[in-house]
Amino acid sequence: MAFSSRSCFLLLLLVQLMAVSGQAPSILPSNGVQLYLPYQDKIIPDYSMIYASQFYNVDQNNDVNDINDALWCQSANNLTNIGVWYYPNRTEVPLFDGAFDDLLVPSPLFSKRFSGQIALARRGVLFGYEGLYKCIIPDENGVNQTLVVGVYTDTGYNNNDGPDADPTMQFSLLSTSRLATPPVFSLSFNISDGPPTTVSCSTNGTGISTELSRVIVNGSGSVTRVTVTNLAEAGNYQCTVSNTRVTAGTISGVTAVTSTSSLNMSVSDTPTGLTATRLSTGLAHVALSWSTVSGATGYEVYSKFLTLTPVSVGTTASTTINITSGLFRGITYTFYVVSYGSASLPSGNASVMLTISDPVVSDFMAILISSISITLTWSPPTAVVPISYNIVRDCRRVCESSTAGNSETSVSSPHTSTGIPPYSQCTFHLIGVYDIITPLTTDYSAKTFATTPTAPVDEIIFTSVESVSMTVSWDEVPCNGRNGPITGYYLTYTNITSNTSYTVNITGGDNRMYNLTGLIPYTNHSVSIIPYNYNMNGPARQEIQLTAESLPGVISNLRYARDPDAINIVWNPPTIPNGIITVYEIRYRESTSTGPYNITNTTNTYYRIVGLIPNTSYTIGVRAYTSIGPGEWTDREYSTAQIRKQLK
């Protein structure tokens, strides 16, 4: 006899009218959470399967306790208004506050809260609402827990042939490093067509105790992701899943069976030939290389100083890698490489140690030195050859305190540093150019050779200038013209009038004073000073100095002419005037007189003495004056005439 869907609904309604609504279970779990199915009076496991004829919104089986035959999600936390039921599409099942048998209850399913529990009640037909339902409820510690149940129509349940597991598991490494010993990993697979109530796993046919998790994925697709965790060895892994439909066996000719997912886990081979070399692109840059591992799909590289640091995780398919960050100078590192496949455990590690020492050049030196250049040579640093070299030069003339800096870039050995002043002290710094610049040597010093001075002494100074002597001093040669240590001076003084010269060798660069004697008064003398260093003479500086005046010499060639009452005298200036003749003094008296002379003076070289007595002898004297005083007298005796006579 066939029934229409309307007839089935009326029949169900009639059955419900005959049943009582029932009450909430009075017993809650002492700890944790659980699923309770009153219609069968049993606690069902998480991820169980039930069908429509096993839960209602009334006390369908009229048990003695009048418990409502909904599906109850229960907690040891007895607070009111807790728990939420979710449809397979992750939306909330509607809550209802009225009585279970109220005609206004939502259809086909609704939820109702009580202290410490929430009911999932069915009022209508489940068709179109099948799938994995989820209850989230806090435990006694207030922590939300999730319980899952597969809910089906009676027909859907009866026709279910058991859960369908992915045939191949998916591998995932749990260890933070593939260097972990042993590496811990997990295997996961999806299950559809029913929740996995039980999962049992084995390795190489031997059952293992595993930690597993089950999570609903893909929303309304009713797929459960099962993950088996904390696995640590290679082998053939197999997991078999079952549920209550499988336990029920054959129903209406449909037999439900378990389903199996498996994966064979192997171990990749250990890389060989691992080497670590420094790169010139950076002081802490390292290149690693190793041999190819057959079947490996990738490699992981780690560095270790105090702790392991991944260099490249899961991305290195090449057998070489340049490490250009994360390393530091002055540290010894151990580098590790492991290989792995798409479905294999990582290999044992290959390792190599490398100390990232600072590069040092130990043979930086001068091989050729001139007065204006220094040629330097060096060998590459042992640690790592730089991209290029720079030389920083600080030079100062030995006689100076301040230095002049110079930077020469992209040089190579040997290198000639030019443009250096003679006799200069230079400090050289060899710089390596990497990702940064760094000194490769301690300071190296060298001095250019001395050469001929190119500047004269700075100034000649005359002091204590007397008539026959003077003191000559001079300032040192300017520093930028010495070109070496001044070891002495040649001093030449010349009487310009007589062109008579004398040269004195004054040794010692600090002896810059000399006393000249035996000079001629009131005479120009040239003084020339030539500085020299060793046997190389510099340019001369010459100055002229006039000696001071002295007492003049005697006049010469005194002559006379006479008259009876006068005598005319004429003379020549002193042959050695010893200065400027300012005046001539004339004295005269009768030769027989012992009285004072008559004194007169003139600036001329002639004079007429008048008022004399005829035919009388006179002593006449003439002397010259300079600013210093008079010279010696020149005396003659002349007589006046009785008759006029010619001048001799």
Automatic annotation (TrEMBL):
Gene Ontology CC terms: membrane
Keyword hit for Signal: yes
Residue span(s) of domain Ig-like: 182-252
Pfam families: fn3
Keyword tags: Signal
Signal peptide bounds: 1-22
Record protein name field: Uncharacterized protein
Organism: Amphimedon queenslandica (Sponge)
